[in-house]
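Provenance and format

Records in this collection were gathered into a single text stream. Each protein contributes a sequence line and a token line. The two records reproduced below are adjacent in the stream.
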Amino acid sequence: MTAPDTQTTARTIGNRLPTVRVLVPCYNYARYLEHCTRTILAQPHVDVRILIIDDCSKDETPEVCARLATGEPRVEFIRHEKNKGHIATYNEGIDLIREDYFVLLSADDLLTPGALGRAVSVMEKNPNVGFVYGHPITLRGDVPQPRLAEREPSIWRGRDWIERLCGTGRNVIMSPEVVMRSSIQKRIGGYSPALPHSGDMEMWLKAASMSDVGRVNGADQAYYRVHAQSMQRTVYSSVLADLAGRRDAFRSVLGAGSMVRDAPALLKLAERALARTATLFLLDQFDSSTPPDWPVEPYVTFIRELDPAMMDSGLGRALSRRLAGRHSAVGRLLAYADRAVSHRMEWRHWRRTGMEKTAWPRDVIGFARSLT
């Protein structure tokens, strides 16, 4: 299915162009802000409004904002006199939504051509869909050409989408590729200060608990810029923090008082998936060319907390052998190669469908397990 032309899109979404509020929080990202804003203003088939909130940047952000707003009524900006942090900035923008749809786009990210029209069209045709996402391109340097040809979109019942996430323990959304129906965003409210690193995942889970979920297939929807990690953020600390953040997001939505059907069972499923992910991460580290030289005990504690039975499984026993130094070099190499193939398959499936498989026909350890 090719990308819809202007006439098709206009006929689909009616005579009045849907309005979209794009919130662009910015802190010391003046060098990216103009490019980000240009990709928003160029979006066809929607009536777009941009609100830039400068969280007391120390760079040229105020000057860039003033220049962007001059003669452009679709651009507004607010500057904080004191730095309030990203959660407070997000929530301030959410309180000001008056449009039909809402997008939160970091100043260093970009939209692809037609992204808003494609996402809005899915929701205009499917009133039960509360938000739409798509595939984001990871941006590390020059901006590559995006795919713009669409396939038939995917629509999931919200509870089914939550169950799919619980089965993998993954957050399948990066963030800039999401367009939310404003009525759903208002029902949810703002981001939780208690979840500074996984509030976005909690937001998607909450939205899915009260609406269906859609995905634009085929076309790329946004660019997600990846920055080099600071010296303080090692692989050890960042991965464990990410896993703990996902755990907290699942518990927030599926814990005591949850309105999601079978929430306790879903939470148990998610925690087991997170324990498995942590186990696989440790196995990858031990089986790589540079085994971990940082403490692994916090990971093992995390695994036992979420799923005590994991260490008695095939994966857990393989990890125990590595922790005890009882494993062969050949077996480790084969196991690592086997998992690398599986990871690549998972990535391709996610890129195509927006979901990750909960299991593959071939176990991630495969025949190499017998050699370790």
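Adjacent record:
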Amino acid sequence: MPSLILEDGSVYEGISFGAAVNAAGEVVFNTGMVGYVEALTDPSYRGQILVLTYPLVGNYGVPAPGVVKELTGLGGKSGNSPAARSISSSLNNQPASLPLIKNFESEHIQVAGLIIADYSSYPSHWDCRQSLGAWLEEEKVPGLYGVDTRALTKKLREKGTMLGKIIMTDEDIPFFDPNQVEIVAQVSPAEPIIYQPAGSPRIVLIDCGTKLNIIRSLLAQGCCVIRVPWDYDFFHLDFAGVVVSNGPGNPENCRPTIELVRRCLQENIPTLGICLGHQIMALAAGARTYKLKFGHRSQNQPCREVGTKRCYITSQNHGYAVETASLPTGWVEWFSNLNDRTNEGFRHSSSPFLGVQFHPEHSPGPVDTEFIFERFLELIK
């Protein structure tokens, strides 16, 4: 029978509703009630088997990817649009090939597998193109339903995240730990791409596995976005600020990105780190990061702005955190998680550097912290 097997030997049997293939990864849970389309396409989940705690999944199906057309100059695929064309004169004449889609957070499902309690095989929604099971099968990703996700989540909370594998066939596979490899390389683009080249200011986005809504959010602010690979030396380009994106895995494995961000700090370039990018900024500044027991993955994480009584409800997806006490002189805590007091943001007291652990671009989740992008752009203007 199809099963999820954890590294401690626990077995959770279920019913297959995706691709009939085996998969291995780190087993994590998300407590959000909606947003499975955005979650499954979030590159931060690369190499992970996702457990959704909300019991009913798939009831609104899966929409078509869609293409962002309302932003000036963006048309269909970026390779055919002057507003989303690679910087051909200075970047080896490589054409952009990725569309800027609007309903997903990347071009494909990123999770290694999906575990749920109850599956709605007959979805109903005006924007539904196909069922969740059909999408998983199309993307060659296994899914299990009929699993006791409450018991599974309790185990992960008590013992911490574990490695696991979904076994659909008679052939066994080894466990896989995405935190032991440079998994960011799997979700970062091979070549730089530019969006809205006539926009201002010009922002370099270091793509460590970016959610597309970070790009959409910057474009909505009128920016030109230069999206570069995680290890790309971009200092010869013309730009005014840098955003370091979210992404999967252990931030300490992103050594090329850490060195790039360290140079940004040394040259006093306005820099914003988001999620993994926040952790990378901390390491570049000389602080430390550590692995959380079971991480924060939901759309309802309360974060207090330090020094105020203001609380924001935030969208989060991360398994590592910054050690607040390790922040060097000049760096101050900006936000704190009200559930476990972990660091949720920092800023520099005199230089144009900001970092947030949560996702100001949301998608899914509350839009409370969209102002972070405005704060960042104020440092440039």
